[in-house]
Each structure stands twice: as structure tokens, then as C-alpha cells.
Amino acid sequence: MLRDFNLYDLFVVSVVQLVLSTVLVLSPAREVGTRFRWTGSKVTEVLPGALGAVALSALACLLTGALWQLPAGGIETAAYLLAIFSVVDI
User: Fold this and answer.
1) What is the 8-class DSSP label of residue 3?
2) Which of 17, 19, 57, 88 has the fewest CB atoms within 10 Å, i.e. is most exposed?
3) Model-level pTM?
4) Cα→Cα distances 83→12, 28, 31, 34, Å
5) What percent of the chain is modeled with pLDDT above 90?
6) Which secondary structure element, helix H or strand E, spans residue 89, and what is its range?
7) pLDDT digits (tens, 9 = 90+) for 57-83
8) Residue 84: inside a domain, yes or no?
9) 35-49 burial, b if ≥16 CB within 10 A, otherwise e?
10) Phi-psi region at 6: left, alpha or beta (left = phi > 0; alpha = psi -120 to 50)
């Protein structure tokens, strides 16, 4: 798995994830302000955020593979690293 990984893969997946995150932050759906009843504790607020970060990394991996035709092993490893650091950042 780490044999196919290089820093270029990580850079491209990071840029794609940054663009996707920027689009999500600037989207008009962000202003909806929906609050769910089951989000009373920190755990139930962090869990959807962590799942969203993992989903965003997976989407960035798919888009990178489709647009740049990079080897799947390298971009999957980069997406794993980005998902781990995104979840830790939440």
C-alpha cells in the first residue's frame, strides 16, 4: 500500500479536498441552520462531522482518480491520511 504512495498524490487529493470543502462552506445550504433534537451532547455533534469528513475524503479520492488518472493505490493512501487528520481535527 505505501509502495504506490508519493507526495504528488497527497498534494493533488489535498487540493481537490480543499476545493470541495470551500464549495461546501460557501454553499447557500449552510445558512439553513437546522438543529436536530438528538444532538444534545458533544459525541452526537462530532460523529456526523467525522462521517462528513470521511465522505469528503472519499469524494476527493474519486474525483482525483477520474480527473487526473492517478494510480488508485496512491490516492487511496492519501485519502486515508486526509480522512484521519480531518477526523482528528474535528
Assistant:
1) T
2) 88
3) 0.80
4) 15, 25, 25, 25
5) 31
6) helix 72-89
7) 999 999 999 999 988 888 988 989 888
8) yes
9) eeeeeeeeeeeeeee
10) beta
Query: Is residue 52 assigned to a domain?
Result: yes
Is residue 42 predicted with pLDDT exceeding 80?
Answer: no
State how many domains the chain has: 1
Tell me the residue range of the domain where 57 lies. Answer: 7-20+41-89
- pLDDT of 41 over the 80 cut: no
**CA nearest 77: which of 61, 65, 88?**
61
Q: Is residue 34 part of a domain?
A: no
Angle between helices 7-26 and 72-89 in degrees, nearest 10: 50
